[in-house]
Specification:
The chain is 23% helix and 26% strand. By secondary structure, the chain is of the alpha+beta class. The strands form 3 sheets. A 4-stranded antiparallel sheet has the order 1-2-10-9, covered by helices on one side. Strands 3-8-4-6 form a 4-stranded antiparallel sheet, with helices on one face. The chain has a two-stranded antiparallel ribbon with strand order 5-7. The longest helix has 32 residues.
């Protein structure tokens, strides 16, 4: 049986950080499902276990561990190769489900030492802090302005830790979210009146508005329904923006396939049931 509609996607802009696209000929429920999947169910890698071996800084262990977990790690080339830790047969951590990182910094000068993501050493070059990838791409080893500051050490202070990054998704913890921001719009001219403007003339126009210069909002469409949806997906750097969209589509497709299989099995059981 053919689908009731055939959605179309048009990419409006694509960079290393942002993708903008529009989906047409679909329902609001489908578009909103995509939005939620992009934010919460696309898998990435993030630091999930921290063993602090030495910490004489002014920051407590729990604070440092939390900061380490929020450092975005490159995941494009490795996330599909790793197993989810719940599916792995190992007792703790192994190469099949995790990536080991280390940090060992001591300050021996009177000038405070900045501990940054540059000091993180990964056992797998496919999983490194996003800022390290940017630095390698620019071939500028002297520029550390993009490195994320972890803490500062004074003379004699020492910070040493071992960390493990694991595969996960933001529904479990936001540190696994690949999106820094996600814009979602379906009524740029307010024709459906889903928003009430107190003073329409003072409300800024959407980038996708089709109104004339002197118009503030479109005439009210009583029986109108949203059919075009504009997305702006901004990546934190762990995944490329186009990979976020493609992975999100795969996740949603799998969910719908699983639902269809389950429903088919239930119908078959009902057909075999004789009261």
């Amino acid at each position: 049986m053919p689908y009731a509609n055939q959605p179309t996607i048009k990419i409006l802009e694509l960079t290393d950080e942002i993708i903008k696209f529009v989906i047409e000929k679909t329902d609001l429920s489908v578009a909103n499902s995509l939005r939620r999947v992009f934010i919460a169910e696309v898998c990435t890698l993030a630091i999930d276990w921290v063993q602090i071996q030495q910490n004489t800084s002014c920051l407590i262990d729990e604070f440092l561990a939390h900061r380490m977990g929020l450092i975005p790690l490159t995941s494009d080339e490795i996330v599909d190769q790793l197993q989810n830790f719940r599916d792995c047969s190992c007792m703790d951590y192994c190469r099949e489900c995790s990536v080991e990182l280390t940090l060992d910094v001591r300050c021996n000068d009177e000038v405070p030492r900045h501990v940054t993501t540059r000091d993180l050493i990964s056992s797998n070059l496919k999983c490194i802090p996003v800022t390290s990838k940017v630095r390698d791409h620019d071939n500028d080893t002297d520029n550390n302005q993009d490195d994320i500051l972890i803490c500062k050490l004074r003379c004699g202070q020492h910070l040493k830790m071992k960390l493990y990054a694991r595969k996960g998704f933001a529904k479990e913890h936001t540190k696994w979210s690949p999106c820094a921001a996600l814009g979602f719009e379906y009524d740029p001219d307010n024709a459906l009146r889903h928003t009430t403007y107190p003073v329409p003339s003072e409300w800024p126009k959407s980038d996708y508005s089709e109104l004339e210069e002197e118009q503030n909002q479109a005439p009210y469409e009583v029986f109108g329904k949203p059919e075009r949806f504009w997305f702006t997906v901004e990546s934190v750097g762990s995944l490329k923006p186009d990979n976020i969209v493609l992975s999100g589509l795969q996740v949603l497709k799998k969910k719908l396939t699983d639902l269809q299989i389950y429903f088919t099995n239930e119908v078959a059981k009902e057909a075999l049931y004789i009261p």
